Amino acid sequence: MPFSLGLPLMDDNVKKKNLPLYFACMFFVKILGPVIGLLVGSKLNEIYYTFEPPRGLTPLDPMWIGCWWLGFLIFGCLLFFPSLALFLFPADNLDETSNEEKITLERLNGDNETQIFFPQK
């Protein structure tokens, strides 16, 4: 789940008691991602870019060109399918706040006047 949309959706749809656990799991995955990326990238660089290296060329040779781009292709395809789950959330819940919440937010921001916004349908 993309991090820019995943955290607010989690905040709105998970019980407040379980929210720290979900956030901890999300940030653990966020930290674990670069580690996995480096490990997979180092293994993919051992594969020659045409998948058939010329005779006598080894990964230690300076002429070796690794298949570094294959990781982006693999992980891009793998992340595409879980991101489709975001389309299952209703669009009207993402930006829904009540009038009382908007008035309270304006007062907290230090505005002298209070404006009442009516939701448009």
From TrEMBL:
GO function terms (MF aspect): sodium-independent organic anion transmembrane transporter activity
PANTHER family attached to this UniProt entry: ORGANIC ANION TRANSPORTER, SOLUTE CARRIER ORGANIC ANION TRANSPORTER FAMILY MEMBER
Gene Ontology cellular component annotations, sorted alphabetically: basolateral plasma membrane
Keywords: Disulfide bond, Membrane, Transmembrane, Transmembrane helix
Protein name: Solute carrier organic anion transporter family member 4A1
A GO BP entry: sodium-independent organic anion transport
Organism of provenance: Heterorhabditis bacteriophora
Any matching Pfam family: OATP
Domain of life: Eukaryota
InterPro entries: MFS_trans_sf (IPR036259), OATP (IPR004156)
Chain segments annotated as transmembrane: 21-42, 62-89
